[in-house]
Amino acid sequence: MRKKILSALLCATMAVSMLAGCGDKPDSSSGDSGNDGGNSAAAAGDSDDGGAGDGAEDGSGAAAALPEMTTEEIELTYMNFDNEVLTKYLAEKFTEKYPNIKVNIIYVAAGEEYNDTLLNLVNTGKTPDCFMILGNCDFALSNSLLGDMTEYWENDPENDNILPSINGAKLGYYGTNQKLSTPMKFFPDALYADMAVFEKLNVAMPPTDWTWDEMVQAFKDVTSPDEGIYGFNQFHSIVTYYPVAADPNCIGEFGWNGKEFDLTNWAVGVNTLGDLMKGKYRAPINDDNGEITAWLGSNEWAGFSGKIGFQIDAFWTYLNLFDTDEYRAKGIEFVPYATPSVEGSNAKYKFGVLDFGGISSGTKYPREAYELLKFMGWGLEGWQAKMEAYKTLTDPAVDDTPIWKQSMPAPLTMDEAIWTDYQTTFFPSLKDTEQDEKDQKYGKYFDDYFDQVKQGVIPFGDCQIPGFAGFVGAEGPYAGVEDSVFNGEKNASDWVAELTEKANEYNRQAMEDAGLTAAQ
Question: How many domains does the chain have?
């Protein structure tokens, strides 16, 4: 596992020096395979002409139905908030395949400046050919920034072997018949269970293929007032999870089915969380009334306390925090569980964070921009290059930290060789041929987690449902609703009719404002 990284990082200095010739981009700090065995596309970049003029060629015939790539000398610009070292490396690899295409990288950290920078580029005639979309999809849609890539997407056979929910839930169509964007980065959510806490309380770990009711029961089982241990702490909420867990036709937050909302299942999720809060199974989330200080002795993060059974959090939290010496020294042993499904519901998707991207509506080279976007995001060849980068590159701007430690996403390709390499290189896994103690102790949990999230995830509503950000915003009709339930003023079911109507109203208005036509 990690032993592979240590040897690979010996090549890091050489790899970073390769990037030294790239010009500096906007300064920022990110908040955010070499193994080609069995991959027929592994030698795609080795053709004599480097792929120029052969848009139908990716080494596996995967792009056979696509228009040919240009043979002209052109430049493409990709704007992103991914990782600057990584995207510059990928740009070089793309140009190795297409020597007639120079790729310029504009990197801006995820934050307020990103969208402002993007609009300034558009207004000054310097629109990037393809770009990542930061958060709220309404920004890109209302400003008509996204080009239609339906022709390329639906005729690219490689897109049959990607995260299933992308096509199954028509992510990036925004309720229309046009493919306007697509996921670029994949961060499946995780409910991290602290094995040390379960062992301390002599409570059995729940099954990794748990149901919704088993999750709720696990929260209760691992709560111990005498030991000062709470069942769970949350960054993300089970309110968001429940509709997707309960309905196979739900492909968005709050009961969105691709055409309209039905908040019936949302209400169940809210009431469930409310009941857990009343039972004091959830840890205090702030120190406004001194609750955290009274519990832990100081206002520290519950996830670092060793006194919670579960931390409901983002994918990147494991690599960034939980898998560090600091947490291990405290005896914290978090392992991931995928978001559960309601028993008997036949729900097929999990929940997670997806960062989207698209080609520009103003690009002169939409075919080539699509290919670059794919290479940077979901494409097999791009992921082969990413695996090499993650194994070898460090970031000089962050104390030479390995870039895989900086919010590395999970693969969007479903290529088995990529996934096996990814899991055994960066995470505990029983698939590792050279297993160490971590593999043997934690590997089953990680292997089962990845098997489940590969079924597909549904992302937060603001990135894929027009109008959702306004609906749940500080000035929208959702403001204060959950508090009214948690404070005992109303049952969540009492809100369903009104909020369903309002959510659909906000969606229709956002679609109209963006000039989008709903699919029939």
Answer: 2
